[in-house]
Amino acid sequence: MTINLPLQAPSAAGLIWQTVRNENAKSPEEREAVLADPGFGNHFTDHMVDVCWSEKGGWHRPRVTPYGPIQLDPAAAVLHYAQEIFEGMKAYRHADGSIWTFRPEQNAARMQRSAKRLALPELPSDIFIESLKKLIAVDGDWVPSAPETSLYLRPFMFAKEAFLGVRPAKKVAFYVIASPAGAYFHGGVQPVSIWLSTNYARAGKGGTGAAKTGGNYASSLLPQAEAAEHGCQQVLFLDEGKYLEELGGMNVVLVYKDGTLVTPESDSILEGITRDSVLQLAKDRGHTVESRKVTIDEWREGAASGDIVGAFACGTAAVVTPIGRLLAEDFEIVHEGDAAAELALSLREELTGIQYGRVEDRHGWLLRLDA
Ligand SMILES: *Cc1c(COP(=O)(O)O)cnc(C)c1O
Which one of 316, 319, 348 would you pick to mutate in the ligand 1 pocket, going by the greatest count of ligand atoms within 8 A of its CB? Predict the structure, then answer.
């Protein structure tokens, strides 16, 4: 049997973008009312990006159109077999009014890796980045300016071919939508409680855990509900029943007494750009950073002996958040000392400082979107 995987698409050069303005765009007053208290993921801007892919035509018809419902054939493959991937990133407004994003080439590259795993076509990085600029060109006013607010950008791609056979779709859509964002966790940056899921996994060996795909989230919803029943905000998944994996939407980092930071390594972890950036900032400060397998027993024993002083979670939406407590069916780890939480918050401060243009961008991580 031969499997025809989608071909690598041509570059953005030569694609002609079309913009259709939203006649019913929110008025400046309506928009400001939303931006005053955006929450997370509740409100969307006036426009969206829409690019088509077909086996014959490659990437084509890139457009910016009014935000609104998508017409899909009920047989569209995504609705049946979940051939779908996405990205998550933010646009930040700097003090001078300019609009920037953070390491977008990393998101573009990750989306290509996700595409490969889900047998979707790889979107060239230049089209990915151009799509963000095109959306900001019409919806730039939606980037809020209050401290720690941003415009969350959600690129996504799905199989839209109407066909119930199981094979990679020959018609695919790429979209970008945007949603103004306030703080992710209610009550600001407080240490979170984590539930250890031992009955469920979000991914497995050889599965799709390293791809940013909706199915991983679908499988995390029930354990997440279990976490909530136990009074926890997030759920920690294990790999092979014993190694730390991740929270399902955020990566985990353990803080050791000597300042060493350890993050779990596994083929089923989604490689976070926040985690990579935070660990780079920690290295710059002289911390030892390790990426290796970590068992749940190492965390338990380290917390008991005082070798492990805390932990934090990181991801674009929540940035960096200290973990105060890990609750499991038959044990609990409580991190009460201030050292790890202070480190997490100071790394968070430095990272957001770079993103909002308050701290020098010495790694060249920012890209301007509105120019
Ligand atoms: C997006 C995501 C993360 C965090 O990645 P960032 O690039 O830091 O936002 C972590 N885990 C999963 C499963 C994710 O989907």
Answer: 316
pTM comes to 0.95
Residue in 323, 179, 187 with CA at minimum distance from that of residue 250: 323
Phi, psi of 123 (to 5 degrees): -85, 125
- State the Cα–Cα distance between residues 159 and 166, nearest whole angstrom: 11
pLDDT exceeds 80 at position 247 = yes
Nearest residue to 61 via CA among 71, 72, 70, 50: 50
Same domain, yes or no: 228 and 138: no
The Å distance, Cα 264 to ligand 1 centre, comes to 14
| Count of domains forming the chain | 2
DSSP annotation of 63: E
Within 8 A by CB and 6+ apart from 341, the residues are: 191, 310, 312, 322, 324, 335
Instruction: Give residue 248 CA to ligand 1 midpoint distance, Å.
Output: 8
Residue ranges making up the domain that contains 168: 2-181
- 324's tokens: 């105060």
Ligand 1, atom 5: closest residue by C-alpha:
272
Q: Give the whole-angstrom CA distance, residue 133 versus residue 130.
A: 5
How far is it, in rounded angstroms, from Cα 286 to Cα 47? Answer: 44
Res 1 pLDDT > 80: no
Q: Which of 115, 149, 181 is the last residue of a domain?
A: 181
Q: Is residue 368 part of a domain?
A: no
Collapsed DSSP state (helix, strand, coil) of residue 179: strand
